[in-house]
Amino acid sequence: MTVSLLQRVLQEKATMGAAEQRVAAYVSTSPGEVIHMSMARLSQICSVSDPTIMRFCRRFGFEGYQDFKLHLAQSLVPSAPFAYEQIVQGDGIDNIVRKTCRNSLNAIQRLLEDIVPQHVEEGARILHAASWTGIYATGISEVTALDAEHKFQRLGMRCQALLGGKKQWMHAESARPGEVALIFSQSGHTKQMVEVAIAARAGGARVVSVAADDSPLARVSDVVIAVLPYDRTELMTPLASRLNHHLVINMLVTAIAIIGGSEFPDQLPALDSWQTDKI
C-alpha cells in the first residue's frame, strides 16, 4: 500500500521540532484548507516563520511551499488501481452515467485479472463448514457485511453481521472452534479489524478476510481473498471502492451453494411470501 503525503506527515511529526510540529498538526487536520492557503497565512495560523514552512516542505523532498501544496492536493484524491475517469464539477448527467458505468466495468475487469479462484474456493469451504459465522466490517464496508448476511441466511447459514466496536469485540473474544470470522476491509490496515481477527483466532475460530493482500489483516487471517485497494483514502471514500467486495460475496455464495449441492447455485431461494407481499 502506497504511503500518502498525509501519512508521511503524521509518521514524521514526532521527529520534528516544536514549530514544525505545529505545522504538521494543522496540515494533517486541515489539508483541504492548506491547499488554498498562502504561506503567509499558514505561518500566521501556526505561529511560525516563513523559513519554518520552507524547512517543513523540504523535509518531504519539495523545493518549496507551492510544490508541497500541489502534491498535497493530489494526495487528497483517492487513486483507483485501474483505468479511472474522474467525475468533475460541470459534468452533465450523460457523462455521470457513462463514467460511472465505465469505471465500474474497469474495476470488475481488474478484479478478474487479480483474484485467485482457489482462495475463493477455500474461503467458501470454510464458511460452508462453519457452525456460525460472524461478519465484521466498519464504515462503508458495513453495507457489504449486511449484504453478506442477507445472502448467507438465504442459503440457510447461521450468521450475523456484527456492527459497532462493542458488539464486535464481545463476539470476537467469545469465538470458539467451528466458528468463522468473515472480515471485510478495503485497506486491511484498520486496527479494529486486525484485533478482531487476532481475538477470534485465539478462541479457535478461523478467519476469512476480504482485504488487501500483504496487509496487517491479511497476515493474521487463515484465508485472504485479496482485492486490490484504492490508495489515498484518508479523507474521501470512492463510491465504487466496495463494488468488488460485493462481487466476492456473490462468488462465495455461489461456491457455497455448489458445495451444498444446489441445482441453481447462482440463484437465491425466495423469501417466504409473507415477507414479500406485493401490490
TrEMBL record:
Domain SIS as annotated: residue spans: 123-262
A GO term for molecular function: carbohydrate derivative binding
Alphabetical list of InterPro entries matching this protein: Homeodomain-like_sf, HTH_RpiR, RpiR-like, RpiR-like_SIS, SIS_dom, SIS_dom_sf, WH-like_DNA-bd_sf
HTH rpiR-type domain mapped to chain residues: 3-79
Keywords of the record: DNA-binding, Transcription, Transcription regulation
Superkingdom of origin organism: Bacteria
A Pfam family the protein falls into: HTH_6
GO biological process: carbohydrate derivative metabolic process
Protein name: RpiR family carbohydrate utilization transcriptional regulator
The organism of origin for this protein: Kaistia hirudinis
Upper taxonomic lineage: Bacteria, Pseudomonadati, Pseudomonadota, Alphaproteobacteria, Hyphomicrobiales
